[in-house]
Design a protein that fits this description.
12 helices; 312 residues
Length: 312
């Protein structure tokens, strides 16, 4: 007996699968960022956060402008909404990026990705504060597991350079908080104006801010570095702009549009694992038992929070 397939159900299944694949690809793209940043810093001690951020975002800016023009033909972000979208871009991609890259000066790529990954738990806390409602027991357990994991993973590195590692970890946690604030406003804006137009405007605003930041720090001069480091630096920043910025930004936004932020965050659990694996293989970063236990706690806690959000 032939099975009758419901076209609507089949279409929904394809949409969910596409959303999962988009989110997965975006998470893998973002997971390369810390590796590329570490490679850039290793080229020359004079290379600083302002330079890496500006050249990464500077290479990305024309692509975001082109995307904005393309999406603008079908439905641009209304002029009255541009300041709000740009402000979200500054919070989520300029402030967060600066704190993140600054933290990477002192902590490992694997730890950075693990700390940055806790942003869904910060979203839950911010929503609870905004709505003035208590957290349920299961949520408290997930939060406890997450931050215990961060403490364990950070403790595995603090033994080497206590003050510097703690500062780096705090900066990356600040980046996660900034990105959590971005997520609170991004979901509604994406639903109103579409993932493409929103991402193009938000990221273009962040790119301009990064270039202005560089101008304040270094002026209109080339970053101070050895001549033989200049071309490798440009190559790394260009790769970072495309692979770890432009493509994943759109992939994640389109993934969220199809399966929601909660499910997209669950798929994103592959990100820290990918970063830790690449950091061990490419940067020879050690992976201690304490970091493994901490990483498992973080993944369990964040996944539980994200599943709960998606069900809600």
């Amino acid at each position: 007996m032939a099975t009758v397939t419901d076209p609507q159900t089949d279409s929904q299944s394809r949409a969910v699968l596409l959303g999962v694949l988009l989110s997965l690809a975006g998470a893998l793209g973002f997971s390369t960022k810390a590796i590329l940043v570490k490679l850039a810093y290793a080229l020359d001690p004079a290379i600083d956060t302002a330079a890496v951020m500006a050249f990464r975002m500077g290479f990305a800016l024309p692509l975001f402008v082109a995307a904005g023009v393309w999406f603008g033909r079908r439905g641009p972000v209304p002029a009255r909404r541009l300041p709000a979208v740009a402000a979200l871009g500054l919070v989520g991609y300029y402030v967060s990026t600066y704190l993140d890259l600054k933290g990477l000066e002192t902590i490992s790529a694997g730890l950075e990705r693990l700390i940055l990954f806790v942003y869904p738990t910060l979203v839950v806390l911010l929503v609870a504060l905004r709505e003035r409602r208590p957290l349920e027991g299961s949520t408290l357990f997930a939060l406890g597991a997450t931050y215990l994991g961060v403490a364990l993973a950070l403790g595995g590195e603090v033994a080497g350079d206590g003050a510097g590692r703690l500062l780096g970890g705090a900066l990356v946690l600040g980046a996660a908080f900034s990105f959590a604030l971005f997520n609170l406003g991004a979901g509604e804006m994406i639903r109103r104006h579409g993932a493409g137009p929103f991402t193009a405007v938000a990221m273009a605003a962040a790119s301009v801010a990064a270039l202005l930041h560089y101008g304040v720090v270094h002026g209109a001069t080339r970053p101070p570095m050895a001549d033989d480091a200049w071309l490798p630096f440009l190559a790394i920043c260009l790769t970072m702009a495309v692979v770890a910025t432009v493509l994943p930004a759109f992939l994640i936004s389109y993934g969220i549009a199809r399966i929601g932020a909660g499910k997209s965050a669950v798929v994103g659990t592959v990100g820290p694992v990918a970063t830790i694996t690449m950091a061990a293989a490419l940067l020879n970063e050690p992976v201690t038992p304490m970091q493994i236990v901490g990483g498992v706690c973080v993944l369990v806690g964040v996944t539980a929070i994200s599943v709960r959000r998606s069900r809600s």
